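Service request form, structural biology core

Requester: graduate student, group of Dr. S.
Request type: structure prediction, single chain
Budget code: on file
Notes: please return the result as structure tokens.

Sequence provided:
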Amino acid sequence: MSKVVAITGGAQGIGRATALLFAQEGWRVSIADLDKEAGFEVIRMIRETGGQAIFMRVDVSDGTAVDRWLTLTAEDFGGIDALINNAGIGRKAPALELTLADFDRVLAVGVRATFLCSQKAGKYMKEQGGGAIINISSTRALMSEPNTEAYAASKGGILALTHAMAVSLGPHGIRVNAISPGWIETGEWQYTPRARIPEHSDRDRKQHPVGRVGVPNDIAQACLFLADSRTSGFMTGQNLVIDGGMTIRMIYE
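Core staff response, request fulfilled:
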């Protein structure tokens, strides 16, 4: 029987590309997202190519909603082999003006949700004898632009949870790793009426030693690698920085 992956924020962007890739590779896919139209579009795309997928509209910071989604996933598909904590939001505001409500909301969708989903999915994985959890962080956990405190704190918290859970869940056969994407262009990977073809300048491309801006499939492929114990079975507690080399390039201008 094919394996099961649960993906938060799976309706658009990196989550959409990941859902489609896993389905293409024969995984059964369960998506949680707040965007109903985009979510059902992804499910339809998967089913049209012969894949199996379900979607539920979920606020991943809500423990009750998370419990309902992952319970449905495990009951419908017979278990959960991999969880990808991809959902995240940002609130850009001057550091001295950012509201506590906005700060709390960003951390709720990023850090709180990552813990809630991992705790629930981890219980199923423990019963099955193992599994993989992949947390989508960001290079913003390691470097910053001005006025991104909430987002940076959220992504930094995800990295801390990654190594903490890797140690705690390792005895149950559960591997926990993170991916920190750099600049990933998601314009084409949106709900169809909102999708757009991006335009990048030579300056944009030259910021990356590989010579281009990232695309969602760059991250989806890494998720597939980390979800498969045959390819990454000796990896846990790690953070893969996937940014085209952007964070290692020194720029003097």
